[in-house]
Write a structure and sequence with these properties.
331 residues; alpha+beta; Thrombin, subunit H; six-stranded antiparallel barrel; 2 helices; 12 strands; 29% helix; disordered C terminus
Length: 331
């Protein structure tokens, strides 16, 4: 081959083959030594340190161009991503608020449902449409009326207790008078001892009055007032209010008792119209047969009926007397 000739064109020896073989043997020896003894590791590390500035200098123009292009592109992308994330955040916040409202509404409805267990046979839930609260009139308009079976005087509850009762009924809506209306009164009893009285409205949604309790009545602050069931307007056992203040004047015959309504009269949005369970009919007493004493005379048997009596046998007709001979009387 021409590349490994020992002489050039003029005939002088070059030694290319000898150098090639020598270099190959040296390279093979270095490979073996590096593989077996790792003697060239320090040299390579030193050479990498020396070559690093060269590598940086060669790669810097390309890296600078890539950085510039990416920085311009990334800014536009970041602006778009930021706008998209802000929109998603607003939607997520709106949904979160709605979920919180639904959770609160669910808790209120569960409270309404649990307040009727064991007492009401039927109930419907209505939403408050309008509120009329002033010094002389405390009523709300609800979206349930005669079409739903609502009737005047029906008990109305919320999740806390008795809210009021129906004062007027339309075909689609009804007007509910609040417990705190000055014209409203409800029979109640103290849950602790069963003391019965009447709670009347004061025109203030946070206060009821018990004006008919004597100064010696057993009532203290903290007593729970529940419906007594008297009068038939409200079923017994519903919470009405909690006594918050009792004032006794020795010179007066009646105590001054204030109570706080159990229902949220100024905050409720859903109301519950309830139908009371009918009272179970009283069982008729079973007549008992008195036991006859042993010493008493035996009871005579009842006479048999005329149909059961045997018919009397007909009596035989009397035989006619034999005729005497006519001549016998002449003797």
């Amino acid at each position: 081959m021409v590349a490994f000739r020992n002489t050039d064109a003029s005939g002088r020896p070059t030694g290319l083959l000898l150098r090639c073989v020598l270099y190959a043997l040296v390279a093979l020896g270095l490979i073996i030594v590096d593989k077996r003894y790792d003697q060239l590791g320090q040299i390579r590390r030193f050479l990498s340190i020396v070559a690093y500035p060269v590598q940086v200098a060669v790669a810097s123009p390309f890296e600078g161009w890539d950085w510039f292009r990416n920085s311009v592109t990334t800014r536009d992308v970041l602006r778009a991503d930021n706008a998209r994330l802000e929109a998603e955040l607003r939607v997520a916040q709106f949904r979160l608020q709605r979920y919180e409202a639904l959770e609160t509404e669910t808790q209120r409805l569960r409270g309404l449902r649990s307040s009727t267990e064991g007492v009401a046979s039927r109930f419907i839930i209505g939403d408050i449409m309008d509120v009329q609260l002033d010094a002389y009139r405390e009523r709300v308009l609800v979206d349930k009326g005669a079409r739903d079976g609502v009737f005047v005087g029906q008990a109305v509850l919320d999740a806390g207790g008795v809210f009021g009762q129906v004062a007027r009924v339309g075909q689609l809506t009804s007007e509910v008078i609040l417990l705190s209306d000055a014209a409203h009164a409800i029979p109640v009893q103290v849950n602790r001892n069963g003391l019965r009285t009447i709670a009347v409205g004061t025109g203030d949604t946070s206060r009821l009055k018990l004006p008919y309790l004597s100064t010696s009545a057993d009532v203290v602050a903290g007593d729970l007032l529940v419906t007594s069931g008297l009068g038939g307007g409200f079923p017994a056992g519903y919470p009405v209010a909690t006594v918050i203040d009792v004032k006794r004047d020795p010179a007066a015959s009646l105590a001054d008792v204030d109570a706080r309504p159990a229902a949220a009269l100024d905050r409720s949005r859903e109301l519950l119209f309830v139908w009371s369970k009918p009272a179970p009919p009283a069982a008729a007493p079973t007549p008992t047969t008195p036991t006859t004493p042993a010493t008493s005379a035996p009871t005579p048997a009842a006479p048999a009926t005329a149909a059961a009596q045997p018919k009397p046998m007909p009596k035989p007709a009397p035989k006619p007397a034999p005729e005497q001979p006519s001549g016998a009387n002449d003797e």
